[in-house]
Amino acid sequence: MPEILRHFQAFRKAFASAFRSSCRSLNLDIHQAAVLKALAELGPSPAVDLSQATLLDPATVNRTVAEAVKRGWVRQVKDTRDRRCCRLTLTDEGLGVARRVLRRIRRLERHALSPFSPEERSRLGRDLTLLTERLASVDGNA
């Protein structure tokens, strides 16, 4: 297996496992956590903004929002400027869940990054950004 793919798969698997373990009592998945986090940060937003903020495809955002609405975490509000559009907003319960998720993710991140110095953390961020930009620039002929 190519080196970068192997590292990506290992990281993805380890992160998913750690996330499930950290957020087990909240009974939500990583997509729900991402949407709740985005709504907590952005405030009332259309689904397209959530898709951009979470890097999730629109279909995944729509399914995730539908589940969050069923669970009472999110409600849909008509946009006063564009009646064809609705904005999604956290309920009080959803805001509480979002805050708990964020605390647990921050704790998980602190744990994962604890062996790194501030300089190494900064370098890691720059390196990951560079890799992301390089991969985003692939034109299909790589």
Instruction: Report strand order across the widest sheet.
Output: 1-2
Number of helices: 6
Distance between the termini: 17 Å
The residue-averaged pLDDT reads 92
Poorly predicted spans: none
Strand count: 2
Oligomer status? single chain
SSE topology string: HHHHEEHH
Percentage of residues assigned to helices:
55-70%
Assigned CATH class? Mainly Alpha
Assess the beta-strand content as a share of residues.
5-15%
Describe the overall structure.
This protein is mainly alpha-helical and 142 residues long. It is 68% helix and 7% strand. The protein has helices at 3-23, 30-42, 47-54, 58-70, 92-113, 118-136, and strands at 74-78, 86-90. A two-stranded antiparallel sheet has the order 1-2. Strand 1 (74-78) and strand 2 (86-90) form a beta hairpin. Helix 1 crosses helix 5, helix 2 crosses helix 3 (47-54) and helix 2 (30-42) packs across helix 5. The longest helix is centred in the C-terminal third of the chain and has 22 residues, at 92-113. The chain is globular and about 50 Å long. The two termini are 17 Å apart. The mean pLDDT is 92.
Helices, strands, pairings?
Blueprint: H1 3-23, H2 30-42, H3 47-54, H4 58-70, E1 74-78, E2 86-90, H5 92-113, H6 118-136
Helix pairs in contact: 1-5, 2-3, 2-5, 3-4
